[in-house]
Design a protein that fits this description.
MetI-like fold, 13 helices, mainly alpha, 262 residues
Length: 262
Amino acid sequence: MKLNIFRVIVSLFLLFVLIFYLCAFVSPAIFVEPWRLANAFLSEEVRFAFYLSIFTATCSTLISIIVGVPVAYALSRLDFRGKSLIEGFLDVPAAVPPIALGVMLLIFFSRNPLGILINEGVIRFVFEVPGIVLAQFAVISILTIKLLKESFDGVPARYEMVARTFGYSELESFIYVTLPAAWRGVLTAALLSWARALGEFGATVMLAGATRFKTETLSIALYLNLAAADVGGVAVVSFLLLLTACLTLMVVRKLLRRGFAI
């Protein structure tokens, strides 16, 4: 049998990538004693960071879905002047480093009169838990909108037109036709956004700070333990983030295999 050199080369590149990430993922378990891992898992700090991360990631994802669904639908279905310009503008936050977004939000709430009024008179974001939610929302909202738009693009507009001929209003057509047809895409967008929010660090540390047992999410706990040379804590937090990401992506891949059609 003739050897296919091209297939051998691409297979070797694939093997290299797999080994590279496998070494990175399993290294904490190899170089950290099991008793240190167990103690870190049972520590109050890790539990606090885990629960806070779940809470804030869920809140920011729900807000992103609530805001993202109408925005994505408008971008998918409506034609208006300046639409391409708006779509291009919405790509900008995705290209800005999260830490820069956090700095911008911090400046807004600490230097801008409107931001100061909101932070002092409505709800405190700077160095508080709501700041974590806002920072995560700032990072994941564009991802949510992009994924939702792709999902709505996959639902033919004629479905809504047929519903309108049966007396449905535009809102009813959206609720009873478009959303049920795109539910897998909406759920996928929510899961991926949630996983991204769970591991968010840059914007969070700039706006909410890194205070133990106050604004300490898993990513911030990883940073604090690393700064304190706590290898066991670093390994445990890394495992928690990795495990959560793996479980989330497994669910997403299962949904994608089934497709987005009803």
